[in-house]
Write a structure and sequence with these properties.
The structure is a single chain. With 116 residues, the chain is α+β, with helices and mostly antiparallel strands. The protein has three helices and four strands; from the N terminus they run αβαββαβ. The protein has a four-stranded antiparallel sheet, covered by helices on one side. The protein starts with a helix and ends with a strand.
């Protein structure tokens, strides 16, 4: 009976994937310290750059699509992603070059795998 009760108290976390557009200063080194800092955010399991790699805007800032896979409790995915986006927006590389902005371009989608 206790084991069954304990099971119901355990909240299932689900895996989600979303896409962000990251805009950084021209000299920012996105691979390396910035990617490691993103991977270090609690709940983030995988990040990868979009197929197009790093693009440039008219002001020569770097633009990159970033796919993030993370796990949270169902119903909290968008709130969590917004917090992750805000954290990324405050990051800098080893030389102090910074992320200018982040924008959610694809809302979180639940994946099949679940974690407890």
């Amino acid at each position: 009976l206790f084991e069954n009760f304990k099971y119901f108290l355990t909240e299932q976390k689900s895996v989600y994937e979303a896409e962000l557009l990251v805009k950084a200063e021209a000299a920012t080194k996105l691979y390396g310290r910035v990617f490691e800092a993103i991977r270090g955010i609690e709940g983030v399991t995988v990040i990868r750059a979009g197929e197009g790699g790093i693009q440039r805007d008219p002001q020569n800032n770097k633009l990159m699509k970033l796919y993030i896979r993370f796990y949270v409790q169902p119903g909290e995915a968008l709130t969590y992603l917004q917090k992750v986006s805000q954290k990324i927006g405050t990051m800098k590389d080893a030389d102090g070059d910074r992320i200018i902005s982040t924008r959610i371009t694809k809302l979180p989608e639940k994946q099949d795998k679940e974690y407890t």
